[in-house]
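Reading group handout, session on sequence-to-structure problems. Before we discuss, look at one worked example. The prompt was deliberately terse, the way you'd type it at a terminal:

> structure Transmembrane protein 161B isoform X1

The input record follows.
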Amino acid sequence: MGVIGIQLVVTMVMASVMQKILPHYSLARWLLCNGSLRWYQHPTEEELRLLAGKQQRGKSKKDRKYNGHIESKPLTIPKDIDLHLETKSITEVDTLALHYFPEYQWLVDFTVAATVVYLVTEVYYSLMKPAQEMNISIVWCLLVLTFAIKVLFSLTTHYFKVEEGGERSVCVTFGFFFFVKAMAILIVTENYLEFGLETGFTNFSESAMQFLEKQGLESQGPVSKLTFKFFLAILCSLIGAFLTFPGLRLAQMHLDALNLATEKITQTLLHINFLAPLFMVLLWVKPITKDYIMNPTLGKESVPLMTETTFDTVRLWLIILLCALRLALMRNHLQAYLNLAQKCVDQMKKEAGRISTVDLQKMVARVFYYLCVIALQYVAPLVMLLHTTLLLKTLGNHSWGIYSEFSSDSLVESHPFSGSVHSELPSTDEKMKVTVTQITMALGGLKTIFTPLLFRGLLSFLTWWIAACLFATSLFGLFYHQYLTVA
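And the output record:
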């Protein structure tokens, strides 16, 4: 309690809430089972037989006998059958049959719990201003990012297991594309993309060299800039490969949701939601946003519209608002996906020939059974964007107040990831005292190496990269579904 104090209490309370309350009152389950989403039920074989004008009969003339056993061909019906699917609201019992429902429920509910812990911690830090405590909300945010990446990795490996389709080639192709793109972006001067990555890495290298010199070690730095950017590009290519199919799926749901929407305001919000990653990308393009806002030319004088600190805060708020908009429109996109069942049936009616009843039932049922996969592809990138932004605020020593007078000189002095230990040491145990002193000095050394300047540059780049990957893949998906698919 002496090290973390109130934050430890908040963590224990939230862990208890997750164990006792969330299984009964789950936001993830409510998003699917609140009555607003309707799924299409597949017709039974008897219904299809009646629609096709067939009567149930015994052994068919086409039945064959092998080794004394009768083997009959599956029942087939004309594709242009007059079939209308019945809809039903999703219930909690229906969710038991959904693929990846436990993963979806865990990710959403844990994200809610981590966000609540983060908000309570932010209020605590703003009121109490503790200087010797580790900000435990950072651990929660990192866990959320870990779970989101794990889920996306699991979905990507599922695509890799498909032998017949081209999903594996698509993932590999986009992975190489994003690797080349990341290498190109990392060599762009900060006059155009102001992540602060160069400044942060320089500060990190100098601090690490000074720390090693104090320990009596000679070193030219922990890692070269080229190696650092190379591994960062590999990480970016993996993130891009994981976000490939979420972006492609979002494009298709966006088009279907636009056709489903009847009100102009809903259509406008859908367009803003689709372009939200582009808006986030432009927030770090210096000539378009920061230079224009910080140094606008009004007549003969250049009067800045806001300070640099205020601009950083506004940028954080805009990302969070766009994430909230995407969450609010989740129902529209999921319903647009569920409507694919009827859309597939309508497309089938335009084709000639026959189809087996089993294949027709699978075609309709498959849409509903993979609902949670689509929900994860929609939610996981949103979770990554939100909590990367929260980490950027905390680890980068930004402020939530738009008009706060935050000095950039305090970046190195105050560090939210500080692990300074403050406890009363027993005077009778000298070994324990020496050990705690060594741990304190080690954590203090890490504090001087991993400064907010480094976290600002790294997290700004990762936030920008996630948004850029989402927009690139969704834009390609929009082009594909609009111009390359045959209606």
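Points for discussion. First: The CA atoms of residues 166 and 461 lie 31 Å apart. Second: The longest strand covers residues 38-41.
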